[in-house]
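ok so i was messing around last nite and threw this chain in just to see what happens. nothing serious, just curious
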Amino acid sequence: MAIADIAAYTHLSQVDIEALADELDAIRADIEDSLGERDAAYIRRTIRFQRVLDVAARLIIGCSRSRTGWVVGTAALAFAKSVENMEIGHNVGHGQWDWMNDPEIHSTTWEWDMVGVSSQWRYSHNYRHHVFSNVVDVDDDLGFGVIRMTRDQPWKPEHLAQPLRNLLLASIFEWGIGLHGIHSERDRLAPDREKVVEARKAFAAKIARQSLKDYALVPALSGSRWRRTLAANAAANVLRNFWAYVVIFCGHFPDGAEKFTADVLENETRGEWYLRQMLGAANFKAGPLLAFSSGNLCYQIEHHLFPDLPSNRLAQIAVRVREVCDKYDLPYTTSSLAHQYFLVLRTIHKLALPGRFLVATSDDAPETASERKFVADARPVAVPGRPRVGLRTSLRERARARRR
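result:
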């Protein structure tokens, strides 16, 4: 089923794993030492751009009288909301800009423009997800509790409906994130009922404020054209939700984004944690515009390795991470956005079915793998002066053997 022994799966010795950790630590140190005004100017410029675009989009929606004007304004508003959600809200919430000591652009003060409460999301996402990434029954983001994304999650008849659940989750993704956050808060605060009640009140208050702004106050400012503004706000929110969902799912659930059993957490070293992040995430290829639009989460591998390093540095970090992968013969999972999303949809539809309808084994399937698939193989031995034969080479050889 899922990976229980990271060293065995990656074909690395403990010495290799410690050396890999040292190299990744060096990358972090180099980036932290070089942070400065240019990085600060980037996030401030991004916030100004997003706010100007938001206002411009609303003016276009409110002032234009054509359908084309409404479409252009709505698309611009959806883009502004996406930038605020991912390149600003998500990344500020990770503490990527806390080093600036700016009270406005800080993880403890930023409240993003969606129904989820930022403080609740920080616990469910920064802690539950990033620390325990892709550990079955520990990381709540693994299918978000409504979609079966690995065979380690027992099949239930309700999973037959998960293709429809997937569409629903995509369209209301901000609500899914908000509910996800409050559920995590409930688990964390369970012994203290008063704090649980306070957390629920905070969530309800955020829903009320957000709904009032999007669906009452802003449309009311449009006067007799309130219906036009209301429809634009609703459409922009849905478009933002779909885009955020696509980016997140393509970074976590295509083939090659592995899952792990809770066994890996026992005495997990820094190097093993790094390996779990590298193996459990996936990138998609993007130019500057697509990278910016996705909050630079096209570099999901690098983001999981260094979640609190500024997003504008991830492209630079990616070059060095690929070099580390080459050195240790590790896979670097990346492809086009369309291809990654196709693989995600294939997994969602495949795992809607009971195991008896699936062909590949539970240890060696495109969406589920473990070190047990290598049991029959001779363990590669590193020989000084010869190229390393590790996980990436082994996976390629197995893929070639299957095609014969």
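not much to say yet. The first helix runs from residue 6 to 10.
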